[in-house]
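[Solved] Which block belongs to which protein?

Original post:
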Amino acid sequence: ALGDELTTIHDFSPFTGALRTSILEFDWQPAAMPQGNQQLWILKTLSNIARDLKNVRGEKNLLWIGGFARDGSISAEPGGRSGRGGSRPVGGAPAPEYYQDMARVMQQLAEARVMFYPIQPSMVKPFELDDFAELTGGKVYWEDKDLAGLMRGAIDDSREGYMLTYVPANYQNDGSAHEVKLRIEKKGIELRYRPAYVADSPAK
């Protein structure tokens, strides 16, 4: 839960019923973001989550509830200032650097094997959150004001899947990024997966 600080509502557990109960019983309110550079604040929090979860084995799912403006973009500082000294109206499109930074953080989550599920209880389409979620294999849930229903959708979506493993030809530990594409012959099937991976860095 992201408010003035990051709060653990429930520790890691394979029991989705316990997780769902803990979240629904939590007194959730839209995040009261601190004054200052709110873009960097949320990006830093996501980066810290990726860092911490990287050491936890297996696939993880991150349900991100709220923490965004009505249009889904990260709120600007008071006075319309955005991160890195740029300016924009509050609630408008984020600064261009935001996309680069958010893509970098999504890459960190993907490397930590975390699927990002932004949940926005609103009828207003979240701004670009769907694109960012797809970078991790996750999905944004928004087209409803029923928080419990949106959470159920995200949990149900992450409950089942396939794990495919392969060894790329001429694999090298050079820290380089590689695109991944999956295809299926059957019609009417939507594939969602991490569209890229980063090779291990050279040993120091």
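(Second protein starts here: sequence line, then its structure tokens.)
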Amino acid sequence: MTTATGLGGLAILLWSLLALLTVGASEIPPLQLNAMCFALATGIGVAWITATRSWGKLRGIPLAAGAVGVVGLAGYHLLYFLALRNAPPAEAGIIAYLWPLLIVIFSGLLPGEQLRLGHVLGALMGLAGAVALVWAQLFSGSDAWLGYGLALACALTWSGYSVLSRRFGSVPTAAVTVYCAAAAVLSAAGSALLEETLWPRDASTWIATAALGLGPVGLAFFLWDHGMKRGNIQLLGVLSYAAPLLSTLTLVLAGVADPTPALLLAAILISGGAAIAARASR
């Protein structure tokens, strides 16, 4: 495994905390939360660019790359925040994490990439594990279909952004700072027009919001962008199936979600699928 692939894997670990922290910051309106998180993410980017003296790398960023970056980052997280407010967090999070399957499939269409049988089998096993976690909810008369639909839109948005970023491999990862800044400004403008501003009322909400902006909605972007452009995109796509499992476990341990037998089945399928895909990528 290359360094770039390893850094992409670290982003996956940070995203395992996304659902839990989103629940912790749920009292903040979604567009406002988006703006606050992306403002913190921009700060991370500015600090890193300044420390590495790489401001010059931001010149000449293609307009298409900027559009893909802003829509991918801001759109995904706005949809995610809305999904977890309109459906059970664990189940909505699992549906949103269908994006690894889509990355594996879509990546096979990129020039120079090859989709092996092991990748497909691993992706299908991971998908089966995700379905095992949400099956009961989907067919029990649940009224959370809006949340599930938003979660599916999340999966399509993030997989599209991740694969398209490969097409802009020459654009430096420092450009993510510009995407985050634009996302923060657009989200703040939308919040001012459409929402009532509500600031966190206690320390725990402030901590959850800060942790979101510094980790899953911050540093993870830069790590993932580097992994998608320089690492093994198919291996990262399938290893991402660890994220829904880890995310669900954190929700269970925090008392936000109840443990079910489906969790064990999902763990076996997701871990097995990742192992098969990892072997295929060697």
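Accepted answer:
You had them paired correctly. Confirming on the second one: The chain is about 75% helix and 0% strand.
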